[in-house]
Specification:
Radius of gyration: 19 Å
CATH topology of the largest domain: Jelly Rolls
Strand order of the largest sheet: 1-2-3-9-4-7
Number of helices: 7
Number of domains: 2
CATH class of the largest domain: Mainly Beta
CATH architecture of the largest domain: Sandwich
Length: 220
């Protein structure tokens, strides 16, 4: 048996600080009226088991602790947006597949009408952003998200993915950055862009912003 490699104290402390920073925001139980958030744990567990990964492997890949991920899987904690994306990356799947996973055994309908109040809604602790999925699931050629962002809310780091995105602002003002160029969109404005270009958004106004974000193929 060979000895495990020794991690220099500075590097070890840096990793520990990074892990603590990622885990701190999510120390809140799932909201009782948030059906999607309340079911995230089993969805993450099924995805992990489907990919034949242990808790330790996911913890190592996401730089989170085993106990932390275990509590998320048991619905004792609800992860932040950033933490959920890190777990999804560790599982090598889009974060949207965890956020808006279809119910096990749910059939894909050719025609699907979503009535008001039926949309899957997702809000995170320590976040001023709410997402509602306007399509039944992400197993389509495109997806549509209803985004509600409080003043100062932002998507985080710029992202890229295949396909095309369309953003239609319904209320307030939303600023969208595409390939380093910012576009301020007011209610009624829209933007279409190749989503292989880096993009992100933020609400730099003092009002709540609402927008429809369409992606083809689905991406989150």
């Amino acid at each position: 048996m060979t000895d495990a490699p020794r991690i220099p104290p500075a590097k070890r402390s840096g990793r520990l600080a990074k892990r603590r920073a990622a885990e701190a925001p999510a120390h809140a139980p799932a909201a009782p009226d948030d059906a999607v958030g309340h079911s995230l744990g089993p969805v993450i567990r099924r995805a992990r088991q489907k990919h034949k990964l242990t808790l330790q492997q996911v913890a190592d890949r996401s730089e989170l602790s085993v106990s932390y991920i275990s509590q998320i899987e048991r619905n004792l904690l609800t992860p932040s947006v950033g933490t959920l994306k890190r777990i999804a990356s560790a599982l090598d799947i889009p974060a949207g597949e965890l956020m808006f996973a279809p119910q096990p055994g749910a059939a894909r309908r050719m025609v699907a009408v979503m009535r008001k109040g039926q949309h899957k809604r997702l809000a995170f602790p320590e976040s001023s952003i709410t997402y509602s999925l306007l399509t039944p699931d992400l197993r389509r050629r495109s997806s549509a998200l209803w985004l509600v962002a409080e003043p100062g809310a932002e998507s985080g780091s710029a992202m890229t993915h295949e396909g095309e995105d369309i953003v239609i602002v319904l209320k307030g003002r939303l600023s969208v950055d595409v390939a380093g160029a910012w576009h301020d969109l007011d209610a009624g404005d829209s933007i279409t862009f190749n989503s292989e270009l880096s993009h992100r958004w933020c609400n730099r106004s003092g009002r709540v912003a609402e927008a429809i974000w369409i992606s083809s193929p689905p991406s989150f």
